């Protein structure tokens, strides 16, 4: 898919990670580039909320089918940190847990295999360089019904920026308190219970961007790059998937794992066999 | 020292970790025992604040002399989590960093070796058992002048408890929001800038406990156990020191390290040589 996207650049191919489009993160990205925090040292991300499982048994319960906090939420955070910092992860360390393996609706011989608690660390640095000066810690906990915390903090040598939900706060070293840099514009559309506010507002901005991109050309057969320039590419998607796999490997091995982006197309049969094998053990 | 303390039980020997005495943690301990959160799953601790370094070069700059976030603050958190949960760490994984190695006052040939960022995970379980069902993550960051965050959260199967500063909040699964379980009584004594509120209030409670303990006996030659029953013993101190050492080992090796409490007295000469050796490399 990455190769195909490269081959037809006139076709729009973007990943559906909408957090990049949330105004708070757009502003954060800009301020980081302008040096608000100085040299970046630590990123700390926390997402807490209720269970991600569907009411009935389905893919959300199954790690191999893409369920769980790491796949669903972690991947959007990995992409976001890449966007915000401009750095990529070189080494990762992770820990996945499934605390709730059965509930009132998923029981009997069925068990949840997807993670409801996921913690990982990433050592990040410039693309191509192998030294990672930036330490990122990401904590995802979906055993907290009745709450929703979405916090992304970047601490640097001269200050820090924190996005809480859809709001952005900042504090420079030497100042007495935090300042609100961008308020929460709120959601004016119909109520969407299933989707947390940052993702909802981000999705809305992304769709607006897409509309502008196509409206720019009369016949809507081509599109303008500007409004969707910040969208993740398929290359970004491959990077995110590689980090996710490395975190899962690390959770099994207990060791730091290197993030090595695939440069050759894999043999699909080989991968399928491996997945089936893994499922059996 | 542990052996000596065991040998003279009529002499009072307690460790100076005062967080156990903070009313918020006393209440949290009680609620955890009563099953407020159900089965404990995850503990998440964050301490953020300004630099721990002294104005001039001294022991606070030197890892070998006991400086740094892990030694100064981490040890009190390790002790606190042992007190709150009743569990001990079996395996730990850690990452230490010194982002600020020189500043306006520490420069030239001198460098800070003590950590200003420390992250560690502990897998905890019942003493004696080797399975660790409880995942603890602890993030200490002392590159954040102008702020002080001290947050200890325990998430369980039926609810959660969070101590923010000296206040305790709780939420049971199914309820709509957090409830304030214990407010901050505040500090009425003279202003103490160097000590954060939770430590200051804890110290105050500990000293009150010590007074009661000795006042209970007319001649003040012996002491009553009751008021200082919750104080950490020298055995607890040895446990904390063992975990600290394991976290430091893990930060070097990059691997999970086992926490093995020393049962025989070490050869002091051997240890000194090892420390000097380590310092050279």
Secondary structural class of chain A: alpha+beta
Q: Number of helical segments of chain A?
A: 6
Using only CA atoms, what is the Rg of chain A? 20 Å
DSSP, total strands of chain A: 9
Beta-strand level of the residues of chain A, as a percent range?
A: 15-25%
Cα-to-Cα separation, first versus last residue of chain A: 30 Å
Domain count of chain A, please report it: 1
CATH fold name of chain A? Dihydrodipicolinate Reductase, domain 2
Largest interface: A-B, 34 and 34 residues
Order of helix and strand elements from N to C terminus of chain A: HHEHEEEEEEEHHEH
Strand order within the widest beta sheet of chain A: 8-7-6-5-1-4-3-2-9
Mean pLDDT of chain A: 89
Shape label of chain A: globular
CATH architecture of chain A: 2-Layer Sandwich
CATH superfamily label of chain A: Dihydrodipicolinate Reductase, domain 2
Spans of chain A of at least 5 consecutive residues whose pLDDT stays below 50 are none
Percent of residues in helices of chain A: 25-40%
Largest sheet of chain A: 9 strands, mixed
CATH class of chain A: Alpha Beta
Domain GFO/IDH/MocA-like oxidoreductase (chains A, B): 25-161
GO molecular function, one term (chains A, B): oxidoreductase activity
Pfam family, one (chains A, B): GFO_IDH_MocA_C3
InterPro entries (chains A, B): Gfo/Idh/MocA_oxidrdct_glycsds, GFO_IDH_MocA-like_dom
């Amino acid at each position: 898919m990455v190769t195909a996207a490269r081959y037809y650049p006139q076709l729009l191919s973007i990943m559906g990670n909408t957090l990049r489009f949330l105004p708070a993160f757009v502003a954060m990205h800009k301020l980081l580039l302008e040096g608000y925090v100085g040299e970046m040292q630590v990123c700390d991300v926390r997402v807490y909320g209720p269970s991600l499982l569907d009411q009935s048994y389905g893919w959300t319960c199954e790690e191999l089918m893409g369920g769980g906090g790491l796949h669903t939420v972690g991947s959007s955070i990995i992409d976001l940190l890449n966007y915000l910092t401009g750095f990529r992860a070189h080494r990762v360390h992770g820990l996945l847990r499934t605390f709730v393996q059965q509930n009132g609706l998923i029981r009997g011989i069925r068990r949840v295999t997807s993670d409801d608690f996921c913690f990982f660390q990433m050592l990040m640095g410039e693309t191509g360089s192998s030294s990672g000066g930036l330490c990122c810690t990401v904590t995802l906990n979906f055993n907290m019904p009745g709450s929703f915390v979405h916090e992304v903090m970047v601490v640097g040598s001269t200050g820090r920026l924190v996005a809480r939900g859809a709001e952005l706060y900042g504090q420079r070293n030497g100042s007495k308190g935090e300042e609100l840099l961008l308020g929460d514009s709120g959601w004016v559309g119909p109520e969407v219970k299933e989707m947390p506010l940052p993702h909802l507002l981000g999705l809305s901005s992304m769709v607006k961007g897409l509309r502008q991109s196509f409206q720019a050309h009369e016949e809507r057969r081509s599109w303008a790059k500007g409004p969707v320039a910040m969208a993740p590419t398929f290359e970004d998607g491959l990077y995110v998937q590689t980090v996710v796999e490395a975190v899962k490997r690390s959770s099994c091995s207990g060791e730091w794992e290197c993030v090595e982006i695939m440069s050759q197309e894999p043999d699909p049969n080989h991968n399928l066999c491996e997945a089936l094998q893994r499922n059996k053990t």
